[in-house]
Structure formats: structure tokens, C-alpha cells
Request: fold
Amino acid sequence: MQRTVFRSRWLPYVLVAPQMVVTVLFFFWPALKSLQLSVYRVSPFGDKSTFVGLDNFTKLLTDPDYYSSVLNSFVFAGGVTVTAVLGSLVLAGLATQKIRGLAVYRTLLLWPYGIASAVAGIIFLFIFHPSYGILPYFLSFVTTYEFNWLLKSWVAMTLVIVAMAWTLLGYNIAFYIAGLLAIPSSVMEAADVDGAGPVRRFTAIVFPLVSPITFYLVALDMVFAFFESFPVIDAVTKGGPGQSTELMVYKLWKDGFIGLNLGSSGAQSVILMALVIGLTVLQFRFAEKKVTYR
Amino acid sequence: MSAVGTTQLERVQARATDAPRRKPISWGALLVHALLIACIAVVAFPLYFAFVVSTQDLQQVVQRPPRLLPSTHLLENYAEAWRKANMGRMLFNSAVMAVTVAVGKIVISMLSAFAVVYFDFRGRILCFWMIFVTLMLPVPVRLMSTYEVVGTLGWLNTYQGLTIPLMASATATFLFRQFYLTIPNEMAEAAQLDGAGPLRFLFAFLLPLSWANIAALFVVLFIFGWNQYLWPLMITTTEAMRTVVIGLEQLIPRSGTELPTWNLIMAGAMMALLPPVAVIVFMQRWFVKGLVESDK
Reply:
């Protein structure tokens, strides 16, 4: 189809210029520098740099701290994604039943999206606090097990996963509500006529129909969990106890900004780049199919 | 009529006249309402509890069993948190950052999308792919080097440094592009026949149609800008430039013996989250319409 276009020699360039300038200056140039940094060893104050080939990468790949940060990141991402996607599907499913008050419920479910993950983290930090927190207090009535995130790494990991998933719920719910509302009522009625109960209706019809949304949200939440999780860690556990909640993102910052090991930080950036490319490709593949019901 | 059709008709007729079926439906509805309210209570509890704590004094905070109803120290806590953490300045910084990033991204993306859709120029495809690639370059992936660029420009501890490096958005550009592609060709043709130039077409025709998208993007980008953490943490070192999210984290003492003033911290948290939550609550309709349902 021939699109109508305007004719101008200079205007389009002027129009894209702002975005291009910012993109080149703050995205491409730094990304290339990261690539470059990853194959150098740079002295802390940047005055001396030696080409070391893939040395930084091999150092990372033989570093148990790095592996544990990778593992932590995947555990974290998995926990956050599963919690956020399942939780939001359930809540959206409830909200879109044939009941009144959808708009009200949607407002009540959507607002956590506005809360910064750092702020959410701080609130949950308080709730999980071993001495003053309300959660360990109530749990102490049920068990003598000590829910101290400062000592037990699984508690710390749960803490940050819950905080992060909490902030993602709203966004996920918004998408699921839209998707569930878009299921043609004729499909649901046909299921009713066939005598399908609510559970079977869900598993056999609803879930498959919203699966594009599910895949899209899984990919999106994973990207968030890998790349936007720095605030939660820094505001809550700072990677602790030990390094059990140190995520790849956090380690990258720590090594580069605090440890001034720019080469290693650069190498970590490159590895993360590969990861984000994979995840973004996935996300786009499913975003295309998001709203067709075939 | 076939046997199958008759059976279906009978079934539908039977359902329509089946008056007692009303009762099971309303029990089910009650159950759903109850479940929803329970879930919302669970989801909202952390926020509610944070609010309650922000109204207590320190003695009540550490009291066991914990009090779950708001107390009376709201004003004094918020006033002290405001004073102690220099909240006014921090809120201002966050607001500047959020609004600048949101507006900046919207304007830049709208112009780029317009150019890519409505002009045929050399490098058009290249520009499109360059914008696309930025999706693969979140902050962590270019962390230290972007910091270096900003430092070289002398933009540390400045509003420009806080906002401009965050301003190129692929998502916004793609949203606008997608939207423009759905505008019928005839509109542009008619505008051209009327002698309207491209800019006039943009401002007089496209812009009014784009408000839903713009509103939705504003919600997302304002929240994004307000809640930024890693970037302000690196770029700002002076107290005067601190944003409220960073400032809040610094209220938490990390080393052992001092009793954290949790009531003040929670007061700070409430102040930090109120603006973005207010934005999403008041603008949620546009958010849903412009972003979630935009490709339907």
C-alpha cells in the first residue's frame, strides 16, 4: 500500500534528530565503550588501560561469586515472574467474573504499579524485620523457626522477590483484565451449554486463549526482574546476607562503581547485553500475537 | 430442522425459563466478591500497614502485639520526616525529573515516529532499527560508560544529567508509529490537497487524535521517571540534587545499634509513593485505553 508521504529535504532529519542524538550519545556510544572496556584492564582512575583480550571474561566465568550472582538472578527472576504472572491471572480472573464493580476492583488492583520497587522494598524490609517486623512476629505464634533474613538467605530472597512481584502485579493485572474481557462471550456461553464447570472452563478455554498475554508478561517480567531489580537489592539487602541476594545487576554496579574494576564491569555488561537481546526478542515475538484469538 | 438444532433450541429455551437458576449465580458472585476483597486486602496490607506506622510514635512502633489502627502522630511524624530528610527539595527534584523525562520522551518520540511514518528519506530504515536496538540497551548494560559520558559533559549533579540520558524511548516511538499507521491515508492526502504542510498536519490533525496515547504514556513515563533509582544514585552526590526515592533509602541506618526511626521512614515512604500512585489512580482509564488496549 502506498502511504501518503510529505516531501521535504530537511524536515525529517530535524524531526528525528533529538532522538538520534540522545540515542547515539547515551546509548550506542556507551554500549560500544562497554564492549571496549570488557577487553581491557583499566586502572581505577582510568589513566592506564591494557588490552587483555578475553581475560575479563575468563576471570568471570571461573569466579564462583559470579556464578552465584547468575544463579541468584535466575532464582529471583523465576520467583518474581511466577508470582506476578500467576497472582495477576488469578486476580484478573476474579475481577472479570460476571459481577459488578469491575472498575472499582481494577483501580484497587492497579495502584501498586505506581510504587517504586525501592519503596516497596523498604516497606517489606520493615514487615520482615527480625526484631520489629510484623511478619516474624505473627509467624512466631505458629513456629519457633527464626525468620531472620539477615541470617537465612532464603528468607532474604523471599523478601526481595515478594517486594518486586508486588510492584509488577498492577501492570500484569491490567493486561490480563483486558485480555479476559476480550474473550468473546459466545465462547464462554458455548462452554456453559456444554456443561463445563468453572475450573474446566478456565483450563480448557480461558488459559489457552490468554496464553499470548501470558508469554508476553512472562518475558516482560523477566526483563524487569533482571534489569530493573537493582533498587530492591540496594534498598533492602545490599546483596546480603553474604552474597545470597547479590544479583548480576548489583554485582555489575558494585564491581564497577564501588570496586572501580571497569574491565570486569564491562564484561558483565556484555554478558547482560546478550541476555537482554534474547529476552527482548522473545518478548517481541509474543507481543505481536498478543491480541489475536485464533 | 436437524435433531442437533432442535436439542440446542430446547436447551436454550429451558435455560431462559429456568427461574430458580438465579440463586446459584448470586452465591457464586458473593464468593467472587469475597475472594476479591480478601485478595485486595492482602495486596493492600503492606501499604496500609506502612501508613499506620507512619502515624505512630516510636514506642508504639515497637510495641507488641503491633497496633493495626492508625494512631495520632501523623502530622508530627510527617513534619519531622520532611525536615529531617529535606523532603521538600527531594520531592521537587523527583517531580522535575519525572515530568521532564515524561514530557521529553513523549515529544521526542512523537516527532521521530511522525518522521518515520510520513516521510521517505534516506536513512529512514536505519533510524528505525537504531531506535529498536535501544530496547536491548537498558541502563545496566551501559552503566559505567554512560556515567563516563555524562561526567565528561559536566552533567553530574544536574537536572540535564538526570533526565536527558533517559530520554530516548523505543516503546514510546513504537507506540506512536503504530498509532500513526492506523490513521487513514485519506487524512494526509486531504491535508496535502488543502495545502497544509507536514508540521501543520502534525499539530492540527495527528496531535488531537493522539491524546489517549499521550495520556497513557505520560502515566507510564511519569512513574518511570519518579521511581528511577540506579541512575540518580550514580549521577547525584549532593544532597541538593537527591531524589525522594534515594533519600528514603538513606534514612535507613545500616549499622547495628541505632534504632531506626521506622515511623519517620514510613512517613517518608508514604510521601515518596503518593504522587506516582495518585497519577495511576486518577489516570488509569487512559492508561488502560492507551497502552493495554491500544493494539486492538
About this structure: The beta strands of chain A are 40-42, 49-51. The mean pLDDT of chain A is 86.
